[in-house]
Amino acid sequence: MSRTVTRAINIRSAACLAFALCTITTAVNLQAPLYDALAARDSLGVGATSIAFACYVVGIIPVLLGLNGLADRVGRKPLIMTALLLCLLATSITLIAPGLLALGVARFLLGISTGLTSAVAPAYMQMLLGGQDKRVATNYVTASTALGFGLGAAVTSLFVFHTPSVSPPSLWIYLATASLALVAVTTLKDRAPSATKSPMLRLPSYPQGAFSYGLAILLAWALVGLVIAILPSALSQHGLSAWSGFATFGICSCGVLFQPWARRLAPRSVYPTGVGDSADCLWVDRLGRYSRQPCGGAAGYGGCQQRLLWVYLFRGIKRRVGACGYLG
Q1: Range 258-276 average pLDDT
Q2: Where does residue 238 fall: left (phi above 0), alpha (psi -120 to 50 degrees), or beta otherwise?
Q3: CA 128 to chain centre
Q4: Angle between the 77-96 and 100-128 helix axes, to the nearest 10 degrees?
Q5: Which of 38, 25, 197, 186 is nearest to 104 (CA)?
Q6: Are 43 and 158 in contact (CB under 8 A)?
Q7: Crossing angle of helices 134-162/244-253, nearest 10°?
Q8: pLDDT tens per residue, range 24-43
């Protein structure tokens, strides 16, 4: 087989995996514009919504810590397929029984799905690309997952604008899209599981000098979660709840636009720049509150700046850590 044909097959396989990764992360915030409506349906407030939102963390942390060696035992493709099946199940639950309880269960399943994906996505992408530079595989994973985190919320907002509902057509469209992604993943090649049983528990390790970057990313993700959790309720106070999906898209996906520029910056210079932008976003949000303007808009801008911070920091550690996922 010629090198050109092999390269074309590798690119097609990488595109299929990128489509699957985007589909998996699309499910994470697919219901974000519905949070306020679901809370009102159950006569609950933003506190209950935040708890349901936080169930995502309850699902992802045990998987990242306790099942990190699973890919060596069963392969990488089964984990991606399992993640897609969990996304299908989570979305189906919110369609069958819309409410905050169903949302909490769905978020828990989505956390497991994301945890399984993040454990294998960068290395799997690199294998499908034929062992190219790790940065190429990382860029594929980063772009596809970043786009997905905001895409689902934006599509849901489009339908909520037209016809407000707790079960908009975007959920049905997602089920069809995820099914297509599942079929695409079945066509991908995979390495045979390792003959030796690897330990399932793998605690995270930080290369020398990388801990501060990891801490900054932790704070950045905490800011993103805080904004997304309270955004629908904040916007509903101004009659703008339908816009929460677009704001979430800005929070989660705008960093993709800055990646080509951020990659040109020196790793040591992007860290203080990103931290400064994170502080700016909090100042803008506070300014919006004092001026009695819709604080969700300011929070959306702040989230965009936060996402830019993530890109800055990601650029700063990428050369030290290698292929790491954009799947927080």
Answers
A1: 64
A2: alpha
A3: 21
A4: 160
A5: 38
A6: no
A7: 170
A8: 999 998 998 888 888 888 88
Neighbours of 209 (CB within 10 A): 9
Pair of tokens at residue 31? 């219901």
Least confident of 189-198, 242-251, 262-271, 284-293: 284-293
Q: Tokens 């951020």 map to which residue?
A: 262
Could you please report the per-residue DSSP string of 21-73?
A: HHHHHHHHTTTGGGHHHHHHHTT--HHHHHHHHHHHHHHHHHHHHHSTTHHHH
Phi, psi of 44 (to 5 degrees): -125, 170
What is the pLDDT at residue 276? 57
How distant, in Å, are the alpha carbons of 10, 16, 312 from that of 20?
Answer: 15, 6, 25
DSSP 293: S
Kindly state the tokens that stand for 93.
Answer: 């639950």
* Cα distance between residue 94 and residue 105, in whole Å: 9
Tokens linked to 107: 């978020």
* pLDDT tens string 105-136: 999 999 999 999 988 888 899 888 886 667 78
For 34-90, how does the pLDDT look when each residue is reduced to its tens digit (9 = 90+)? Answer: 888 888 888 888 788 889 888 998 999 888 888 777 877 888 899 999 999 999 999
Angstrom distances, CA of residue 118 to CA of 22, 122, 170, 180, 227: 12, 8, 25, 21, 23
Contact 212, 232 (CB under 8 A): no
The pLDDT of residue 33 is 87
